[in-house]
Automatic annotation (TrEMBL), chains A, B:
Pfam families: TetR_C_3, TetR_N. It comes from Celeribacter neptunius. This is Transcriptional regulator, TetR family. Residues 41-60 bind DNA. One of its GO terms (molecular function) is DNA-binding transcription factor activity. InterPro entries: Homeodomain-like_sf (IPR009057), HTH-type_TetR-like_transc_reg (IPR050109), HTH_TetR (IPR001647), Tet_transcr_reg_TetR-rel_C_sf (IPR036271), Tscrpt_reg_YcdC_C (IPR013573). Residues 18-78 form the HTH tetR-type domain. Keywords: DNA-binding. One of its GO terms (biological process) is negative regulation of DNA-templated transcription.
Amino acid sequence: MGIERHMPGRQPRTRIQKKNTETILEAALDVFSQHGFRGATLDQIAKAAGLSKPNLLYYFPSKVAIHRALIDGLMQTWLDPLRKMRADGDPIEELLAYVLRKLDMAREYPRESRLFANEIVQGAPNIMDKIEGELKDLVEEKAKVIEAWIATGKIAPVNPYHLLFSIWSTTQHYADFDAQVRAILHPEGDSHFTDAAEYLETLFRRMLTP
Amino acid sequence: MGIERHMPGRQPRTRIQKKNTETILEAALDVFSQHGFRGATLDQIAKAAGLSKPNLLYYFPSKVAIHRALIDGLMQTWLDPLRKMRADGDPIEELLAYVLRKLDMAREYPRESRLFANEIVQGAPNIMDKIEGELKDLVEEKAKVIEAWIATGKIAPVNPYHLLFSIWSTTQHYADFDAQVRAILHPEGDSHFTDAAEYLETLFRRMLTP
DNA sequence: CGCAGGTTTGACCATTTGGTCAAGAGAACA
DNA sequence: TGTTCTCTTGACCAAATGGTCAAACCTGCG
């Protein structure tokens, strides 16, 4: 009984497997984040990874498998900044720290941000389960925390869901709409992130101060 | 000398041409906004328009021509809300009215918003000229207006560019990330836009009040 | 009606794309 | 050293895709 002929199992077993799966995911992040799922091709990814196309398909069974592996690996990292928001800290400082962490992620991991943006703009066909699962659960948990802070008068009353939406949108904007931001500001490197941090800190501090 | 064999000129001449070009652009808006340029296919657009593929190519010479025609027609509408911001009105009310107009557009024209979002997330390959032209000019003009308002003390001092970015991102979020917003709030129809309007009005009023 | 123009489409084409396969090249280990 | 398992790839395939073309079909108008 032949079962699966070759194709490594879910976890890389050898050094070469580990190195190559990493190389592939790195290249795939480049390509998927730039062109979206349908716009990306295996040839592009293979070329970016310096491997042959059949070799990609030795490590991953299909194009969508590569995409899924990427998203799975990233979702964890992506939700980290929100998870780190502690209910027992100072409310305003916790929220502002969250804003700045999110902005840092937009600067450090713009490809990851664009990967999600591409996916969600197109209706989230491949990650809706994760949005309705992990993300939604975390958001509801944190919305309760924010409501508790409001109840104690530590922050001004605001709709916690729309507060989170506005934090996401304003910070991710600098990654997702990078092309537009740069066309308008034509900054040197990432210099505009300093201004963005100052602006967003002011924006949300004024919003939240009771 | 045959010149162009058939293919209508830039402007529709007959009723049928007018009707069909409109049908095609409408269908193309559906498809491009959902899948991005590379992800959209002529077959999809043809099917959505109820026309045959060769018939599409009778009215438009190529896929990119359809896309370009769409973008050209939309850029005008897209910049309207910002154009309407009057330098001689009450600063805070002008800016808040702009925010609400932008939010209205996200509700009324989500496909248009996603069309631009798709394009810009992927590096704006087809519209960079317009961003660096019309959009940039308009933004610089309005940034000066905002700075003048700040100089007179009518609004709190803020970076006008980042203010505009935050208005764009927070409002367009409800169109571009609609799938995510709905997954988290699961609203009936557009009911969440009422909460969004209230939230954003509060957010920017607090930001701008001196 | 007749017919000159605009309109529509079936059949076709070259290229691209995701994916397969069998055979060969490398490692590893006894 | 030989053998077994891992890794790599050139050649190939079917489907999808953007686009062409000649022939047929309308339609308005004299």
